[in-house]
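Newbie here. two chains, one complex. Structure please?
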Amino acid sequence: MRKLEDLQSLIANAVADLKYPEYPAELYEPIKYILALGGKRMRPALLLMACDLFGGDVEAALPPALAIEVFHNFTLMHDDIMDNAPKRRGKTTVHEKWNNNVAILSGDVMLVEGYRLMMQVRNDLLRTVLDIFNDTAIGVCEGQQLDMTFETSNNIGIAEYINMIRLKTAVVLGGALKIGALIGEADEKDASLLSEFGINLGIAFQLQDDILDVYGNPEKFGKQVGGDIISNKKTYLLIKALELVKGTDAEELARWISLTTFDATEKVAAVTEIYNSVNVRQQAEAEMQAYAEKAFEALNSINLPEENKQYLRDFADGLLVREY
Amino acid sequence: MRKLEDLQSLIANAVADLKYPEYPAELYEPIKYILALGGKRMRPALLLMACDLFGGDVEAALPPALAIEVFHNFTLMHDDIMDNAPKRRGKTTVHEKWNNNVAILSGDVMLVEGYRLMMQVRNDLLRTVLDIFNDTAIGVCEGQQLDMTFETSNNIGIAEYINMIRLKTAVVLGGALKIGALIGEADEKDASLLSEFGINLGIAFQLQDDILDVYGNPEKFGKQVGGDIISNKKTYLLIKALELVKGTDAEELARWISLTTFDATEKVAAVTEIYNSVNVRQQAEAEMQAYAEKAFEALNSINLPEENKQYLRDFADGLLVREY
């Protein structure tokens, strides 16, 4: 099996080799710009990995892998407009560097370019692969819409939240793995199991992200601790805490959420203490563990040599057990 | 051959029958809303017409025809954001009724739904049809970008302008006709000729629109006369006039364009007089005629019974000879 890093650099080189027209410049420059911002290229690497695991031709899987990366960057370009985000990977976002209209239209073109790349598969796989791609794309859009709706909604349950992160971040992992597996000649059953693995791993990964934002070591994972608390982001932790807190703690949590001016450090400390009082960390970890186990169960059922399954287990472990 | 009106109502009924999920409401309500605004359903009707002309099964062509209509409405939803348009077909636009984010994301979903519908063709046509659809979509986006770029550019030539309207409005007619012809079992040559017909007819139609905006009878075509002049829209007439006017007329035209406050009736009268002084109407009509002839030439070369070609000629005549 090829190493993940090798697959990632294969993608990075292929992304760098993608060619777009010069004219109209306002349409294609932003596409080149966002694709050159880098990133781990994890989603397309997963597609190649899945193909490789089933002994498929990784080179043949390269255009669909690029499709996933171009699609992912289309969602980033449009999400950044919607989130009013000034920066992406430390650089100015497209809508800031150009304007909203440019970011809307260049994003639209990227979605179409995604289809063009995804269509570079064998004829006998074309319909199946595009069906998966369509479902993935719709899922991601639904997830983004739910994420926005949740921002202004005060009554989100854990099940709704899990469904949102499944759509927004996990289905694209599942879709990439499934497409890669099919290109690698996996049968429908194994490809679907690998997709299950990816979706559940994705949910577990996002839950871990929620936990790390509050309980992570900032030196280890390079993000400001408590950013989600500061912005009242509806994470697993906040939703669970709102469900569980009673009495003065409930009033106190509601008060911190309602404040428009506050000392950030103080807010993070106070909200974390409320989280601790109802053990949300433990519950989030248990939920994360449950999804990780679902992922491993799906993996165990796949008809692949033990060595290949171990490769996937090691990959998942590397993703999930980031040091706190 | 089926009558155009029958094909249009076939589409209208099928559009009304399209089903979208209830949840998330903010994602799917705007899609239902914009599709219910109506319109002539001309583009999808052309797809069905092309299929019918070659003796194909019109029912089988219905999903791809709907794909063209959904795609077209996706472009309207995003264009309306970019153009900051408050109204569409007399009703509030999606970004006004909801907000920009909703219009961006619902539009994205519509593009994917367009692909889903377009994929409902026979396996042996799938790749070809999607290639045409991709090229059409990219063309429309390029045309919209050029249209926006031209707004703030002072040095647009006629060739660039024709290229812009070809991309923005004509290629989708060509694409719809070509896909319909192929579903109707036309060979590649005839399908391409029909596409040529559609593209050239589309350019002629847009040029006619430019002419009618200034010289049309407002009672006959229901639009305010001179709207393009009032907004300094870069039409064939304005670009040609800027190319031709000399001396005081050139200064006068430049002055009217630069004014931010003015009497609309006065501006329309003054600019029209300058247009008349360099005969831009005659030149626009000649250009329109040249594209109409190109359309008819392509049509004449198609391997179809004379009766079917006459049907297309009548259709084109009905489209182009709107009474001034």
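Moderator note: Residues 264 and 282 of chain B are 24 Å apart (CA to CA). The first helix of chain B runs from residue 4 to 17. Thread marked as resolved.
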